[in-house]
Specification:
Blueprint: H1 2-13, H2 16-69, H3 80-93, E1 99-105, E2 111-115, H4 126-133, E3 138-146, E4 163-173, E5 183-190, H5 192-290, H6 293-321, E6 327-329, H7 330-348, E7 351-356, E8 361-363, H8 364-384, E9 390-397, E10 401-407, H9 435-446, E11 450-457, E12 460-468
Parallel strand pairs: 7-9
Antiparallel strand pairs: 1-2, 1-5, 3-4, 4-5, 6-8, 9-10, 10-12, 11-12
Length: 485
């Protein structure tokens, strides 16, 4: 939920997002218009170029019909003179179109004759010849053709380097209604008129494209700007509702935690009532002078332990009511535990060691509760471990939990006490009442963790606190072990 809120706030505060969205949309619109304009331009140009070819093809058919009706052509269309006569008549009829040169080709595409006579020889391309044999005219526009190259060298007054636009048209010669080509005529026509039409076409298309982009861009900009404003307004409302929901969830969570800590406190007070009453009666009825030295020390030790436990619980209760929140990593947690237990273990002659095989961070509230449980377990382990021996904390990661194992080298827990180990007023230590383990069990339940005696023998005991991984902010496995001694 928090990640979603951060993304929403980032999007809402980004002033560049609407501009980027509108700009990208306008860019796509411009690309679409340019692509469509270029496609339309190519098609219209092809129609303009093919228009004259269709006209000349029709003129050739008309000339053939006229000559046949006058009995001049007869059945000799496959003869070169008759073909040349038709080409000449077509050229005369289309002189107003600016025919510069005319070439006559055989059915195999080889050059046959030319008009005027000083036109240089040429041959038909394979693809042009194939199309002509299908009785289809061919037209092609050249932007810049060297005019002098059309004629034989030294037979024209055109400058050698002069270029001009040129329209090339190829027309098949055939009888009307018959698919057999008897020859082909090439007309090289001044393309200035076509070039002018192309320029006019380009100006019109550019103007229309600009108009379309302008109108479409204005409409798109206003529509997207309105949509982005609406979207930002909805995002603001959603963020406000999300924040209210998060605030409500936090209040509910704090209320639930307060109730749980209250339950722990009630159980603690209930567990403390019996030993405190015994202490009060002992001190009131007998006094220090009447007590043996050992009994008086036990009373003092028990009183101090109870006072320390009460202080820790009060501190944690205050922590739950505070607003400060921070994270404590597992190495930091191990250091805090070592600092709290170093003096106590040193006086007992017991060494402490930590084997850390998991990483991650706990919120300060959960970390303080876990630290209180581990500190009590370590103190218990130190009290039962003979001098010169070791108490070890091993932290490892399982599939869904992080396990904290406290291993001592004491005599072990008697079998008759194991079923009642986590109940108040049950202890194997001199002067002990089992209150610490009972409190630790309640604190573990509050953390949704488990606390149990994993193993116990004459060589020592192992208590395990298994904390759910869901309580951790993040977990990173450690590559190396870390020893605290």
């Amino acid at each position: 939920m928090e990640a979603i809120r951060q993304v929403q706030q980032r999007l809402l505060r980004s002033r560049r997002l609407p501009a980027a969205g509108i700009g990208l949309t306008l860019l796509i619109l411009a690309g679409t218009i340019v692509f469509g304009t270029l496609e339309l331009r190519a098609r219209i140009r092809a129609q303009i170029v093919s228009r004259d070819a269709d006209i000349l093809h029709g003129v050739a058919q008309m000339v053939q019909v006229t000559r046949e009706s006058d009995m001049e052509l007869g059945s000799q269309l496959d003869q070169l003179p008759d073909q040349f006569a038709i080409a000449l008549q077509i050229s005369e009829l289309t002189r107003f179109n600016g025919v510069i040169a005319t070439r006559l080709f055989k059915t195999n595409g080889q050059f046959a004759a030319a008009l005027p006579a000083n036109v240089s020889a040429a041959s038909l391309a394979t693809e042009d010849l194939a199309r002509l044999k299908e009785i289809k005219p061919v037209s092609r526009f050249h932007n810049a053709t060297r005019v002098a190259g059309i004629f034989l060298r030294g037979t024209t007054t055109f400058a050698t380097n002069k270029t001009a636009p040129m329209l090339e048209i190829l027309i098949p010669l055939h009888r009307q209604g018959q698919p057999t080509m008897h020859g082909a005529v090439q007309f090289l026509i001044d393309g200035s008129n076509i070039a002018g039409q192309f320029a006019t076409l380009d100006r019109n298309l550019v103007a229309q494209a600009a108009l379309a982009f302008g109108v479409g861009g204005v409409i798109t900009t206003f529509a997207l700007a309105w949509a982005f404003r609406r979207l930002q307004k909805m995002n603001r409302l959603l963020i406000e509702r999300t924040e209210r929901l998060l605030h409500t969830n936090e209040e509910l969570a704090l209320s639930a935690k307060a109730s749980a800590v209250g339950a722990i406190t009630a159980h603690l007070i209930h567990g403390l009532s019996s030993p405190l009453a015994g202490l009060e009666e002992l001190v009131a009825t007998r006094g220090r002078d009447e007590l043996a030295e050992g009994e008086w020390k036990d009373a003092v030790t028990t009183t101090r332990q109870l006072t320390q436990l009460i202080s820790e619980v009060v501190r944690i209760l205050g922590e739950y009511g505070a607003v400060d929140r921070y994270e404590i990593t597992l190495p930091e947690l191990a250091e805090l535990l070592e600092e709290r237990c170093r003096t106590f273990a040193g006086k007992a002659g017991v060494s402490l060691a930590t084997d850390l095989r998991a990483g991650g961070s706990l919120p300060n509230r959960e970390a303080n509760l876990a630290l209180l449980i581990l500190e009590n377990l370590v103190r218990n382990a130190v009290q039962v471990t003979p001098p010169g021996r070791e108490v070890r904390l091993a932290v490892s990661r399982a599939e869904s939990t992080v396990a904290f194992e406290i291993r001592d080298q004491g005599p072990g827990v008697p079998a008759e006490l194991k079923p009642r180990l986590f109940k108040p007023c049950r202890s194997t230590k001199p002067g002990g009442h089992g209150i610490g383990l009972a409190i630790c069990k309640q604190l573990a339940n509050h953390l949704e963790a488990t606390l149990e005696l994993q193993a116990s023998s004459s060589s020592g005991s192992t208590f395990v606190l298994r904390l759910p991984r869901s309580r951790f902010v993040g977990q990173v496995p450690l590559d190396s072990e870390r020893e605290l001694s």
